[in-house]
Amino acid sequence: MTSLTNAVRGSIEYLDKSKAYFIDNGVLLFLWIGLGVAEAWVQDVFGANSVALLNTENHIIPEKDNPRSRGIRRAMELLQRKGLRRRNVFIVREGDSLEPWMKKFLVERQYYGVYSARLDILKPRIIEAAKHQLGEEIIYKQLENLDLHEKALVIGTIEKRISQRPSILKELAEDEHILPDDFDVEGCLVSSKDFLEFEDEKQIVKLEGNITMDEVATGCTVGLFGSQVGVISSEIKLCFYLFTVLYIYIYIYIL
Description:
InterPro entries: ADF-H/Gelsolin-like_dom_sf, DNA_pol_D_N, DNA_pol_delta/II_ssu, Gelsolin-like_dom, Gelsolin-like_dom_sf. 24% of the residues lie in helices and 22% in strands.
């Protein structure tokens, strides 16, 4: 193994009970194991006859002389290399007492429930507005059903990716004097490395095209007309090239 497989979004609802996942938040590394994982996988990786018989208290992935074991340990090694520091590894079986604690570290999905509920409510109104603007023949699709270069309406939530946004990880890195040379601790947070992401119910893509960082804010529910244009980096597999911003909902709360 020379590279990691594609990542899924950091939310418990995306974890398939018949599989196992590494969950990496940059501070801790978890190996989450679903109760439906095949016995052959459990035997090869841990030497146990079933998921129920796993010893998850010692948080050790033993060395076994088989392809699955070598693949798991190689994946863990690659993840450790990506981080700012070496992380402690915790093995969490689905339903174990550690699972609620693990879920607290899925901070990327902090407002997922709010965004999802807002999307469900606003989607019919956005589709109606899109048909009024571009015609009744406009096609709405979810990102996972969109063919490469196919033009369609997609509806979801905007998120700004600010490379120099303050975070606990950067504070830890600063304490250890391992920040990159070009990181401006006290200066402007705006950077040429910043970009926009768009997320619907099941997938996320980078946005490019007829939109700028200043036009939207994280949490905006939007309807976009454009097409996916292919692989752009090892981290973000697909880019959605935007032709038209059809509708943007921004909530302003009066306090």
